[in-house]
């Protein structure tokens, strides 16, 4: 077998073989470079701020004194804001996806419009969601101010289209025969969907949703406009509470020219990366597990 | 069933039982609820448009042709509204980002669709997902602390780059959009029918020739979509541009200079908690409108290419 392939290869001209080999090398280098970049960024952050890593960094509140400075308020702020954003966006997103996939009936002008709208909403720059937040939620008609509630609504709008898209994909991956069997036995559409389609679509939905939520966790731009850059030394106490978030705490420290604050920014980045990688890893493992189960 | 019902038994009457009526009611209520949820996504879009347009038009009526000027200083007195520096800054940073993302992103896509074995694919895809998961603030930090001082300041030949450079921002934005190019293009290339590859191999083409001359051509509309969507994402990126390219709207063609993009201006001006109706407040909505309109057009275009591709092969 080996000899056949070499004799076949030798019939390809030297010139083409060189081109082919260098192309393969180029592809491999691109992949390896991407991987190397991830490691390099972590290495540099760790090199800069690794010595600061301790539980105190998570336990202490932001401070101008580097020895007692930590990220508790921003971490709690991120959890509050992203938590409420998920609470708003996930039910609405899942219901929209279910409606479009299972209840809207045949494609008509209404569903086509909704689909176009969702696709485009997913591509709206994040900072623009900050603008609608500023105009209608923090100021203007709702005037909720720079609060956890305002920020949660803005992030909910940001992740809503993503959640709809991933949930629809998960629903589409459920074999239609499940539902058809139930319908043939006299179940209503809702009974078939709630008892068969939804349970089978949960793992896929969960994977996509976790990725969407982790995106919201790392998002900084829209909340720049909602006062999240302020120096906050307390944890949120409710939806009306002021807040800051981890990405913007990093942003704030990074903008300071004093070196100890730059170290703090790197330390905060390591915490943020750890949180996001954990979420991503969980999502990827969940998907891998589901795929394997389905294949068996 | 029907024969027992005819026998007159109340339980088996043809009228729907309470149980049946209940489940029909549940079906009706849940369907209505879901339709209502569906409308919310439309309301968000309507909300965006309504939040942007009135303020934009009010400001435009005031400043009219000043937007064509070459000095952007809306936060100073007297305010100047020439958008040229923002447009040029945005364009340069997006261009650098595309120069990074096109070769690496397409290489990753071709690798995934035509070179990687099933197991290698299972390793490489998560790497790209992790790259996509790095938050922009961390990329910005890396650009500000590492790329600008250690690479751009040292090696950029034109002018004297300082702490903030468009080049650094462009490079970091490029890394941000590599996974977008890779995943959309990979979707397209992977769904090119196997038969086309086999036909080319049978004619004696090498693996590179199959990948670049057959598969890449067959999946071209998907690849174009990938590039358009990545372009759009880079266009709207705020945090990286703000952290790495600074907040000075300099009109310059030298990537070693600090620059401001449209998105980073919104972020910058928004930090100051601008008073409603003030010049700063109105200006961020004007720039937001331009940003929203351009990305909307790009996204419609990109998605059109994707659906054209799906129609052909799926």
From TrEMBL, chain A:
Record's protein name: Phosphate transport system permease protein PstA
Topology class, membrane: Multi-pass membrane protein
Organism: Actinobacteria bacterium BACL2 MAG-121001-bin67
Residue span, ABC transmembrane type-1 domain: 75-283
Locations listed in the record: Cell membrane
Family (UniProt): Belongs to the binding-protein-dependent transport system permease family. CysTW subfamily.
InterPro entries, per database record: MetI-like (IPR000515), MetI-like_sf (IPR035906), Phosphate_PstA (IPR005672)
Keywords recorded for this protein, A-Z: Cell membrane, Membrane, Transmembrane, Transmembrane helix, Transport
Matches recorded under NCBIfam families: 3a0107s02c
GO process annotations (BP): phosphate ion transmembrane transport
Biological role: Part of the binding-protein-dependent transport system for phosphate; probably responsible for the translocation of the substrate across the membrane.
Gene Ontology MF terms: phosphate transmembrane transporter activity
Residues passing through the membrane, by range: 21-43, 79-100, 121-138, 144-166, 223-251, 263-286
Classification via Pfam families: BPD_transp_1
Cell membrane among keywords: yes
Major localization class: membrane
GO CC, alphabetical: plasma membrane
TrEMBL record, chain B:
GO biological process, one term: phosphate ion transport
Protein role: Part of the binding-protein-dependent transport system for phosphate; probably responsible for the translocation of the substrate across the membrane.
Membrane topology designation: Multi-pass membrane protein
Gene Ontology cellular component list: plasma membrane
Name the record gives this protein: Phosphate transport system permease protein
Organism of origin: Actinobacteria bacterium BACL2 MAG-121001-bin67
Primary subcellular site in the record, as a coarse category: membrane
TM region(s), chain numbering: 33-53, 86-115, 127-147, 167-189, 210-231, 280-301
Classification of source organism: Bacteria, Bacillati, Actinomycetota, Actinomycetes, Actinomycetes incertae sedis
NCBIfam families: phosphate_pstC (TIGR02138)
Keywords, in A-Z order: Cell membrane, Membrane, Phosphate transport, Transmembrane, Transmembrane helix, Transport
């Amino acid at each position: 077998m080996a000899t056949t392939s070499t004799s076949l290869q030798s019939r390809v001209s030297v010139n083409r073989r060189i081109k082919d080999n260098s192309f393969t090398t180029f592809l491999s280098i691109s992949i390896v470079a991407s991987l190397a970049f991830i490691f390099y960024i972590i290495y540099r952050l760790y090199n800069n701020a690794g010595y600061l890593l301790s539980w105190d960094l998570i336990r202490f509140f932001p401070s101008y004194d580097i020895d007692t400075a930590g990220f508790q308020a921003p971490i709690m702020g991120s959890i509050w804001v992203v938590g409420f954003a998920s609470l708003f966006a996930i039910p609405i997103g899942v219901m929209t996806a279910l409606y479009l996939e299972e209840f809207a009936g045949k494609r008509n002008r209404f569903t086509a419009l909704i689909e176009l709208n969702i696709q485009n909403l997913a591509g709206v720059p994040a900072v623009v969601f900050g603008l609608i937040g500023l105009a209608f939620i923090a100021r203007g008609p709702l005037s909720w101010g720079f609060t956890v509630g305002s920020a949660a609504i803005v992030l909910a709008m940001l992740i809503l289209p993503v959640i709809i898209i991933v949930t629809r994909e998960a629903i589409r991956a459920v074999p239609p025969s499940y539902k058809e069997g139930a319908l043939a036995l006299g179940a209503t559409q809702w009974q078939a969907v709630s008892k068969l389609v939804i349970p089978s679509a949960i793992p896929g939905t969960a994977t996509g949703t976790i990725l969407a939520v982790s995106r919201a966790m790392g998002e900084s731009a829209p909340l720049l406009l909602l006062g999240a850059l302020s120096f906050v030394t307390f944890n949120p106490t409710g939806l009306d509470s002021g807040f800051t978030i981890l990405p913007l705490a990093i942003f704030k420290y990074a903008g300071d020219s004093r070196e100890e604050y730059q170290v703090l920014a790197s330390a905060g980045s390591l915490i943020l990366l750890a949180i996001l990688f954990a979420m991503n890893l969980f999502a990827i493992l969940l998907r891998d597990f589901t795929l394997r189960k389905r294949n068996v | 069933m029907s024969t027992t019902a005819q026998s007159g038994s109340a339980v088996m009457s043809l009228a729907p039982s309470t149980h049946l009526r209940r489940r029909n009611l549940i079906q009706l209520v849940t369907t209505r609820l879901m339709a209502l949820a569906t409308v919310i996504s439309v309301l968000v879009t309507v909300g965006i448009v309504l939040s942007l347009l009135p303020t934009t038009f009010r400001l435009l009526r005031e400043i009219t042709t000043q937007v064509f000027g070459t000095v952007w200083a809306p936060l100073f007195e007297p305010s100047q509204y020439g958008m040229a520096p923002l447009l040029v800054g945005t364009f340069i940073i997006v261009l650098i980002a595309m120069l990074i993302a096109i070769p690496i992103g397409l290489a990753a896509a071709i690798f995934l669709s035509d070179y990687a074995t099933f197991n290698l694919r299972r390793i490489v895809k998560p790497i790209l997902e992790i790259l996509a998961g790095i938050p922009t603030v961390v990329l910005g930090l890396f650009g500000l602390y590492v790329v600008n001082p250690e690479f751009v300041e040292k090696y950029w030949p034109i002018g004297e780059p300082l702490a903030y450079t468009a080049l650094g921002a462009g490079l970091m934005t490029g890394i941000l959009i590599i996974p977008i190019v890779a995943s959309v293009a990979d979707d397209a290339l992977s769904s090119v029918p196997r038969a086309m590859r086999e036909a080319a191999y049978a004619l004696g083409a090498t693996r590179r020739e199959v990948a670049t001359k057959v598969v890449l051509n067959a999946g071209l509309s998907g690849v174009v979509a990938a590039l358009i969507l990545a372009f759009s994402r880079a266009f709207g990126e705020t945090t990286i541009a703000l952290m790495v390219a600074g907040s000075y709207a300099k009109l310059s063609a030298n990537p070693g200079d600090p620059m401001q993009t449209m998105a980073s201006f919104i972020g910058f001006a928004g930090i100051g908690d601008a008073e409603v109706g003030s010049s700063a407040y109105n200006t961020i909505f004007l720039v937001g409108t331009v940003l929203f309109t351009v990305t909307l057009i790009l996204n419609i275009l990109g998605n059109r290419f994707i659906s054209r591709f799906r129609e052909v092969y799926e």
